[in-house]
Structure formats: structure tokens, C-alpha cells
Amino acid sequence: MTDLPISARPRILFVDDEPRILIALKAMFKQDYEITTAPGGAAAIDLIKTNVFDVIVSDQRMPGVTGVEVLRAARDNQPKAVRLLLTGYSDLNAIIGSINEGEIFRFISKPWSNTELRATLASAVRASSVEQIALPPITDAAGVQQPPSGVGVLVLDDDPQTFANLKHALESSRDVFAASTVDGCLEILSKNSIGVIFTELVVGGEEVALLLSALREHHPSLVVVVITHQADAGHSIELINHGQIYRLLLKPSSDSVLRGTVNIATRRFQMLQQHPEQIQRIVVEPNPQLQAPAAGGLLSRIKKIFTSSWAS
Amino acid sequence: MLQRAIVVAAIFMALAVLGFLVFKTQSTPQDLNQHIERVSKITRLQQLNAEFDQEIAKARLGLDAEPKALAAAQKKFQDEAAAFAESNSVLSNVGAQVENALRDYFQAARQKEQLLSDYRAQLSEYNSKFRDMREEGEQVLSQIGQREQARKQVLTLMVEATTYCVAAAPLNGDYLERIRSSLADSVSEGDNAVLHRKLLALSAAVRSVRFAKDNLQTKTQTLLAVPTADALQNVLNEYYNAYSTQESSISRYRLLLAIYASALLLVFALVGWRLRYSYRALDRSNAQLQDSNAHLEESVQARTQELRKALSDLRLQQAQLVQSEKMASLGQMVAGVAHEINTPLGYARSNVETVRESTNGMRALIQSFEAAIKTPGAATLAALEESRRNWNPEEGLEELDVLLGDADHGLGQISELVMSLKDFSRVDRSMTELFDLNDGLENAIKICQNQFKHRIEVQRNYGTLPRIPCAPSQLNQVFLNIINNGAQAIDGEGFIQINTRDVGDTVEVSIIDSGCGMDEQTQAHIFEPFFTTKDVGQGTGLGLSIVFRIIEDHRGTIRVISAPGQGTEFVISLPKKAHKAAANQASASGPTEAELSPA
User: At which residues is 4-aspartylphosphate found (chain A) (predicted)?
Assistant: First the structure.
């Protein structure tokens, strides 16, 4: 509990329609951070436009302007600010919106544990300390589109249709690889230069979440896009908090959505490759399952892949 | 109907014309035998008439005997005429001309009859005169003796007189007169007075004979002049005329009949052809009908089977939909309730933790106080100051109050919500429970609370209500649904007004929202299953149909009053007294309940 000078303290904006929540949060954090509160979405957007914040924490369900809208406005107006959603209950649409439009850092569910919330907020403040870098422009100075060569796309799905759709959408402008099992995926990752992975949540009866957490740990610049036909609110929250997935798409997705997602994801990969410090902005909570002995084999395999091929 | 009447009338007309024609051809039986008999009768009458006339003419010539032949002829003729007159009916109906002719004839015959008796008297007188004359002559001749001259004269006179009498048209009258006048002179009075007298008597007899003969002649002429023969001829002619006229008219009718009959035959043939044509068509359609009839049974059976299956599918789907509507509204409710509970839980828990954390500061401060009291000095005072800086008792205690107050408030809210949920979801299958609708409305409002927050003001105008027998959980669902819809209809800020009142036999609940309202077309459909104004996926369109069913099961009524932009009012009216059948039905029906109960 160190008292920093007022100006040096991280600025945090809390948004909630329940004033008691704001009081509680303020009581918790007023010693550590510079706290601003907004009693609703509209007021929050006004504040975002006129003030600078390092971290923005918003409730989702609010009358009038929702949390997703607040976070979208924050991303557009203050891309540096790290965005969190604090919510008692969110329907899937709100979660998908906050992932794809809000590029959210964490979901925090109500009721929260003060200890965890402090840790989350601290990691958010750390993430926000890294200056945000905009993605490289989609076209070069001459206006010619430049597909980053060498950035391969891997599709991990036991439904071949996903690969076919993506291949069709990209019109073979990129290297696209397909894997239908986690092992196959690791095989391809070890042999090819892969920057973006499109994955279903369950492949060959195996959950991919653990793989994603492991990959995030050892290959943090790999951009993950989840494409699924059965998204679930709880799953999605895990995918953000432990996997920092970049996008969540629902099947079936149109060609234009797929193409756009691949383009922006590869540019992000390129950016992360060039600016490794940016990885701090997408740091994840350690996945407790990774500590389990069962995950050991997987971890060591992944470690081997990335120490041999990517470290060089 | 009219057509049938026309056809029947036409058939009757055709038959009537046919009957008329047949009657016309058959009306006077054109029996050839009768015709021949008639003609032969008339001819025989003519013949007899001629014979009769002949006898009449002959009779005046017979000088001596009674005219027996005449009498016989007369008798025969009279008999025949009488028979003819008697049987003249055979000639009746033949024609007026014939009857006139017949009348003429009968008149002539009567006249002839009359004349005939006169004639016969004359004839007998004439005969006796002639006999007298002959006797006178014989006497004269017996007495004349040798007077050859006189004898000769008398003989000549006698011959001439007889000739006169015998001749039909005697020419010797003058000669006879000359002889007669000279007769008396042949024997002078003086010669023989007796003879002379006898001669004078003879002369007188001759004269009277001649006179009688002349008389008879006249009578005969008159009698023969009676035109019985002409009349008969006329009758015959008229009969022939009438017969031929009739014959020709009959033959005309016959021709007409023939033409008509052939025309009818043609019509019949036409009708028959048409009939045959129609029958063929009829047969065809009959066959088709039989065919389709045979197939109908099958197709009806098949269709019934399909329909039955479709019905059971529909029932199943309806039950599933009702269930999914329930689950959807349950999900929505859970979302709301979770948020509603997690928010107070969030700050309550956080506040409690914060307070506990601040106990460290408090403890440090207290320890510093104790140290300062135990060993007062600069060091302990500085430590006390440090502790005070870390945890300011004025600010800190005030904050503690606020935080604990909030936590208390939050816990109170949570327990209230949990109570409403408990009330709301209680399982009741019968309508026997007594329930205050105001409580149900209050529960529904609590559950919807998160929809209202800062946006919608709830105005309660509760009247004092008796507890009514009902299924509380069902009515709670009704209120929740209507209040929820009202809240969704309000864009931005607004109000929901809830009025309840006791109206005699019923209890009335009115729920008014200041939302967007709806047009008449929407109002007409809102209670229909699957009707929804929400976006696809936002609602099943079953909510209000379930509401309607629940109210119906309670023997109540629900109506809607609304206009676009004017908000909406739902008025629910429920009976105070339980309806026995309703209670049973509610427990028996309600697939929502039935679905939930284990089979």
C-alpha cells in the first residue's frame, strides 16, 4: 500500500448502474488508484471522450447503453486503456460482442473476491503500462495490398467444411493448413511457420482450451481465432481469461468475415512479432489445469516445438 | 323445378293433340258395312217407291178386281218406310243436309199416304161405275134383239168405253161421246120404250164411268206428282255428299295425324338419342363415381391416418413449444434474477471483505493506543500518528458504517428476491388454494425489477382484495408475462400502472403501460399462438396465448385496450368463487403441467 503521487497513480474508471457497487469498488481501490466512477453507460462514454484512463471496468447490463457499447467506445477513443467487463450475468451475445468489438482483457463475474479482483486489476494496470501500437496498415504506400508472406494459417477442426470454407474465402492467397486432431495440430506447428490458428472448441472429443492456454504460454504471439457452432458463455469467459483469444466466430461465417478476420489476425501476428513487448497487453491468467500432471506431456511437447523451431 | 314443369306440360300437350286427332278420325265410325247398309236401305226404299208408283199407275187400269197388288205394294212400302223411319237414327249425326232431305222425304211420304186413301176410294167408285156400265151394256145387248145397227153401236160404245178406261191416256174421248150421244137415237122411244130407257141408262153409266176415269186420272197424276222418289234420291245424294265430306275431313285428320305422329316420333327419336347420349355420359360418370368411391374409402382412410399423425405431431410440437416457451421465459428470468442477485451479493461480499481488511488498520491503531498509554513517549506517539495516518478512525468508521449498511441492504435485497422466487415458483396443480392477487403482482414486479431500474416507474393502486381460489403459480406467470411485455414495450422512460379492485362477483386487475401500444390488427392476434411482434429468436409468440389459456382455465376473462403510441392496458377479470368443473379441468388439462409431471 504505497501512496504514489496523485498524478502518477493509475487511473481507473468504474462503470455500473448500481451506486453501491461503485461505493464498494471505490472503498477497495481508492488507496491504490485514481478512481473515477460513472453511474451509467452514457455517462461513461462522455468521461472516456474527455479523460484519460488506464483501465476501464464496466458492468454489462445497464439501462440504455450496455457494457459492450462502453468498451467499444473505449477501444475506439482510448485504445491504450485496458478493458474489463464486470458482470453478474451475461448472455452469449454480450460476451461475443465484448470479445470481437471490445477486445476485452478480462471478464470478472459478480460477486467477486477482493483478492482476485485486486490481482486482476493489477495485471490490467501492468498491461496498460505498455503503449498500445496500432496494427500496420492493410496497404502499403503505393496502395497495393501486401499479404505478409510466410504467415501461415492453421485450421484445427474435425469438420473438413471449416477448412474448405476458409480456403474458399482466402482464394489461396495464403498458406492454409488443416489439422483434425490436437496431435496433428502440434505436428503442423512444429514443421511450418504458423501465425494464426482457427480452432473449434472441441476437436476429436478433446477440449482445445488447455492447448490454447499452453500455446499462449509458449508462443504468445500466435493469434487465436475460435470458430465454433456451439459457443457457451462460461467457455467463452475462460477463453478470454486464460487464452486471450483474439476473435470468437460462430459457424457458419460468411466469406467476407473469414477473409477480414484472417487479414486482421495476420497483421496482429506481424505486429506482435515485431513488438514483443506488446505481448504484455495480452497476458493471461495462469491456467490452473496446466499445473496438473496430465498436462505435462502436452506442455513438454509444445516446449520442444517452440524451442526448436521458433526460438531460432 | 320450373324446367320439369315445362317438360311435363309439353308432354301433356303433345298427348292431348294426339288424342284430339285420334278422336277426330274415329268420331263417326266409318264402318263400311254401315255405309253399305244405309245406302242399300235408301236404294231399297227407292225401289219400293218405284214399285208402289207402278202399282198405283197399274191400279187405275185394273177394271174389275180390287187392286190387291196395289195394297200389297202399299203395305210393303209402308213397312219399309216405317222401318226406315224407325232406324233413321242410323242416318242421324250424318249432317243437317241429310236430315233436311229426310224430313222432306217423310213429309212427301205422308202426303202420298193421304192422297192414296182418297185415290183408293176413287178407284173403288170408278170400279163400281165400270161394273154398272158393263151390266147396263149386257142388259141392253140382251134386249136389243135383231136390231143389228143398234147392237153394233152398243158394242162399239162398250169397246170404246173400255178402251177409254184401259188406256192410260185415252184419246178416244170425243169419239166415245159421239157414239154415246147418238146411241139413244139408234132405238127410238117409240120403237121400244124399255130399250130406249135402257139405252139412256147405259149412256148415263158410260158418262159417269168416263167422268170417274177422268177423276181418277187427275188423282193419279196428283199422287204420282208427290215427289217421294226425288226426295229419296235427294236423301241418297245428301248422304253421299255428307259421307264424302266426312270422309275427306277424316282423311285430312288422318293425314294430320300421320304427320303429327311422325313429328312426335321424330321428337321421341331425338329425345331417345339425347337420352342415350345422356345415359352414356351418366354411365361414364357413374363408373367414374364408383371408381372414385372405391378409392375414396382408401384415400379417406389414408388421409385420416395422415391427419391423425399430423394432429398428434402438432400436439407434441405444441406441448414442446409451450415447454420451450416456459424454458425461454425461465432462462430470461434466471438471467434477470442472477444479475439481480449477483449485484447486491457483489457489493455485500466485497464490502464485508473490505471491512475485514480494515480491521488490520483498526488493530494496528488500537495496539498503538495501548502502547502509547502503557509507555507514553515520543516513539509511541509517533507510532500512534503513523497508525492514525494508515487508518483514520473518523473517516474509517464512517466508511465502515456505509459499507456495512450497504452490505446489509444488499443481503436484504437478496433475501427479498429469494422469497419472491420461492413464492413465484411454488408448485400448485389445483385451483383450491386461496391467494391474494396483490401478492402475486408484487412478486412479479420484484422479479421484473431489473427491467425497470431507473427507467420505469411502477405505480401501484391496489384495492383490498379477497383471497380467491386459483393456481397462484399460473397467475404469477400471467402477471410476469404481461408486466414483462409492458416493460419491453416502453422505449426509454415510462411507467407501469397496476390497478386492482373488487367488483362484486369478480376481482379485476388492470395493468397499464406507457409503451408503444399496438394497432387493432395486432390486438386481434396477440392471444393467438405463435403471434409475435418481437424479432426472430426473441420470443416464441406463445406467451400471451398461454396467458389466455390460464385465464380461461380460471373461468376469467382478459381483454386488451390499446392504440399505437397510446400505451396498452390489459384487464383481467377473475371470479371470486371456484368453479367446480374449472378446478377439475385445470388440474386435468394444462399440457404444461401434464408435461412436467412424470408419466
Answer: 59
Cross-chain residue pair A27–B354, CB shorter than 8 Å: yes
Any chain B CB within 8 A of the CB of A89?
yes
Pairing status of strand B468-470 against strand B433-435: antiparallel
Cα angle: A206, vertex A207, A212; to 5 degrees:
125
**Do the beta carbons of residue A74 and residue A41 sit within 8 Å?**
no
> Residue A202's beta-bridge partner residues?
A207
Length of chain A (residues): 312
Distance separating alpha carbons of residues A192 and A194, to the nearest angstrom = 6
The band of B87, judged by pLDDT with boundaries at 50, 70 and 90, is low
- CB distance B348–A111 less than 8 Å? yes
Q: A202-235 pLDDT, tens per residue?
A: 888 878 888 888 888 788 888 999 998 878 788 8
Contact A63 B454 (CB under 8 A): yes
Contact check, Cβ <8 Å, B339/A24: no
> Where are the CATH 1.20.58 domain residues in chain B?
31-226
Higher pLDDT, B76 or B403: B403
CB B132 within 8 A of CB B165: no
CB pairs under 8 A between A and B: 75
Q: Report whether pLDDT(B55) > 70.
A: yes
Closest CA to B238 of B88, B94, B86: B94
pLDDT(B276) > 80: yes
Average pLDDT over residues B115-143: 81
List chain B residues with CB under 8 Å of A40. 454
- Taking contacts as CB-CB distances below 8 angstroms, the residues of chain A near B353 are 113-115
For A233-265, give the DSSP string: HHHHHHHHHHH--SEEEESS--HHHHHHHHHHH
Of A17, A115, A117, nearest to B454 by CB-CB distance is: A17
Mean pLDDT over each residue of chain B, to the nearest integer: 80
Query: Which helix (H) or strand (E) element contains residue B453?
Result: none
- Does residue B332 surpass a pLDDT of 70? no
Strand partners, B513: B496, B568
DSSP per-residue codes, B208-267: HHHHHHHHHHHHHHHHHHS-HHHHHHHHHHHHHHHHHHHHHHHHHHHHHHHHHHHHHHHH
- Do the beta carbons of residue B512 and residue B567 sit within 8 Å? yes
- Contact state of B402 with A23 under an 8 Å Cβ cutoff: yes
Q: What's the one-letter identity of residue A59?
A: D
Grid cell of A109 as nine digits: 463475474
Mean pLDDT confidence for A113-124: 92
Nearest to A28 among B350, B450, B455 (CB): B350
Indicate the residue of A20, A40, A109 with minimum beta-carbon distance to B406.
Answer: A20
A284 Cα to chain B: minimum distance (Å): 23
Q: Which residue ranges form the domains of chain A, and what is each CATH number? A: 6-129 (3.40.50.2300), 152-310 (3.40.50.2300)
Task: Enumerate the β-bridge partners of residue A82.
Answer: A55
**Residue A6, pLDDT above cutoff 80:** no
pLDDT digits 0-9 by tens, B454-496: 788 899 999 998 988 888 888 888 898 888 888 888 888 889 9
Chain B residue with CA closest to A64: the answer is: B492
CATH topology of domain B31-226: Methane Monooxygenase Hydroxylase; Chain G, domain 1 (1.20.58)
Q: Strand, helix or coil at A13?
A: strand
Is A49 or B420 the better-scoring residue by pLDDT? A49
> What kind of fold does domain B427-596 have according to CATH?
Heat Shock Protein 90 (3.30.565)
Residue B218 confidence (pLDDT) above 50:
yes
- Torsions phi, psi of B569, nearest 5? -125, 130
> Is pLDDT at B580 greater than 80 in this prediction?
no
Using a cut of 0.90, tell me whether the model's pTM lies above it. Answer: no
Contact B343 A63 (CB under 8 A): no
Q: Which whole number is the average pLDDT over B300-328? A: 83
